[in-house]
Design brief:
heterodimer; A: alpha/beta; six-stranded mixed beta sheet; four-stranded antiparallel beta sheet; 9 helices; 10 strands; 40% helix; B: mainly alpha; MetI-like fold; 8 helices; 81% helix; binds adenosine-5'-triphosphate; binds magnesium ion; AA_ABC_transptr_permease_3TM (chain B); transport (chain B); cell membrane (chain B); amino-acid transport (chain B); transmembrane (chain B)
């Protein structure tokens, strides 16, 4: 069963065609890692999936909800986009936690405001999610009182609070100090093991090797090559993939 | 300087000081509301709202407050809008301060990182929910220093409405001088009273600022 289905997704910024017709299907419980050089369109692809960026062309389907690109805004379309977003947990490179709210309030916000859940019930759910990401003791801390790794784990809990069908991560560990990367990757690994469907933009090769069912290599707004991590890392077919992997390994 | 003059004038001047505080507080409250909604109009996607709000801000920032006071008090009666001195004064002060405040509110809304809006809508919030729950609480905290500053300016500006016979602190001082012929003593006394209320409010607002800005990364 497919969770995400992209058909001919295109995105132009002015005359710059950043996504040149992406077709992609992500199945239930599948973990897809997206790699590619800077500027290849990885972030744009994730952002277009939930209309943080309006695509120029194409159709996006998440679960049963389908939205086509480039249509006029109407109340109906806004609601459809909202449905897409509710089904999708988005984790940002810069965390984007709400600084004026405590960790637990960050996680309660979506259920209360969007789903109209009672405060106490939302608190229970948030508490259990924070425990799940190893932060049961940090519920009442403000983001400014948490380390980067802890903030990103709160952000993951916040995304999970809406019970999404799929989690999207845009370089979730690249703003972190090296010693904090592991705790975040571990949380993501645990989620994957529980069967969460995920699309992850990351250059963490080890994570891809251990967790990814499929690795996709993007360059210049197209999918250059895809396969299992073994296929992509050990015997890439395309010249561009080889060059990119050499560079990543050097780092 | 005659100490007895100070003692005799003080009760009257203190009363007038209360009037000054009243004018400033009422005007700032109206100005805050006005500034807030004008800022929302300025960032709204509805062009007409933005245009009206911009025009208002431009007019009230681009003309002297004293002229605004004259137009409202002496000018409007010609088109059959007659307001008493105190409402005229409050209207002029709040329209003027509202224009300035709207600019600082707008700047503070725009200064909230756009990742905050993205994180909010990603949870499924609407634009307005995100604005109300996430963006505005942060931008209001960011705007507290400029709000404080506007209030201080407003306290001083109340002295301008002495020209339309509102017996606030400055007008009352002038009346007393006409009786006592002691301009230096009375005006210094008035200055001291302005200084005291402004200092007291500054300290209070400073405290408020410290309390609320704790968890906002600036
Ligand atoms: N809002 C925008 N306006 C104009 N151009 C943009 C915008 N966002 C991205 N781009 C351009 O689109 C291209 C792809 O950007 P994108 O951020 O998707 O790349 P990326 O693969 O995520 O790169 P990185 O690894 O650096 O994050 C780049 O050339 C970028 O300059
Ligand atoms: Mg990116």
């Amino acid at each position: 069963m497919s969770i995400i289905q992209l058909t001919n997704l295109k995105k132009k910024f002015g005359t710059n065609e950043v996504l040149q017709g992406i077709d992609l299907t992500v199945n239930k419980s599948e973990v897809v890692v997206l790699m590619g050089p800077s500027g290849s369109g990885k972030s744009t692809l994730l952002r277009c999936l939930t209309f943080l960026e309006e695509p120029t062309e194409g159709v996006i389907q998440i679960g049963q909800q389908e939205v086509a690109a480039g249509e006029k805004t109407s109340r109906k379309r806004k609601n459809e986009i909202k449905e897409l977003r509710k089904r999708t947990g988005f984790v940002f490179q810069q965390f984007n936690l709400f600084p004026h709210k405590t960790a637990i309030e960050n996680v309660m916000e979506g259920p209360i405001v969007v789903q109209g859940v009672e405060r106490e019930e939302a608190r229970k759910l948030a508490k259990s999610l924070l425990e799940k990401v190893g932060l049961g003791e940090r519920c009442d801390h403000y983001p400014s009182q948490l380390s980067g790794g802890q903030q990103q784990r709160v952000a993951i809990a916040r995304a999970l609070s809406m019970k999404p069908m799929v989690m999207l991560y845009d370089e979730p560990t690249s703003a972190l100090d090296p010693e904090l990367v592991r705790e975040v990757l571990q949380v993501m690994k645990d989620l994957a093991q529980e069967g969460m469907t995920m699309v992850v933009v990351t250059h963490e090769m080890n994570f891809a090797k251990e967790v990814a069912d499929r690795v996709i290599f993007m360059d210049g707004g197209v999918i250059v090559e895809e396969g299992t991590s073994e296929e992509i890392f050990n015997c890439p077919k395309e010249e561009r993939t080889k060059r990119f992997l050499m560079r990543v390994k050097e780092e | 300087m005659d100490i007895s003059i100070i003692i005799e004038s003080l009760p009257t001047l203190l009363n007038a000081t209360l009037m000054t505080i009243f004018l400033a507080v009422v005007s700032i409250l109206i100005a805050l509301l006005l500034g807030f909604f004008t800022a929302l109009a300025r960032i709204s996607k509805i062009k007409l709202l933005d245009a009206i709000a911009s025009l208002y801000v431009s007019i009230f920032r681009g003309t002297p407050l004293l002229v605004q006071i004259f137009v409202i008090y002496y000018g409007l009666p010609q088109v059959n809008i007659e307001l008493d001195p105190i409402p005229s004064g409050i209207l002029a002060l709040s329209l003027n301060a509202g224009a300035y405040l709207s600019e600082s509110f707008r700047a503070s809304i725009l200064s909230v990182d756009k990742g905050q809006m993205e994180a909010s809508v990603s949870l499924g919030m609407t634009y307005w929910q995100a604005l109300r729950r996430i963006i505005l609480p942060q931008s209001l905290r960011i705007a507290i220093p400029t709000m404080s500053n506007s209030f201080i300016v407003l306290i001083k500006d109340t002295s301008l409405i002495s020209v339309i016979t509102v017996t606030e602190l400055l007008q009352m001082s002038s009346l007393l001088i006409a009786k006592t012929f002691e301009p230096l003593t009375i005006y210094l006394l008035a200055a001291a009273l302005y200084w005291i209320i402004i200092t007291v409010f500054s300290v209070m607002l400073d405290r408020l600022e410290k309390r609320t800005s704790q968890h906002i990364a600036l």
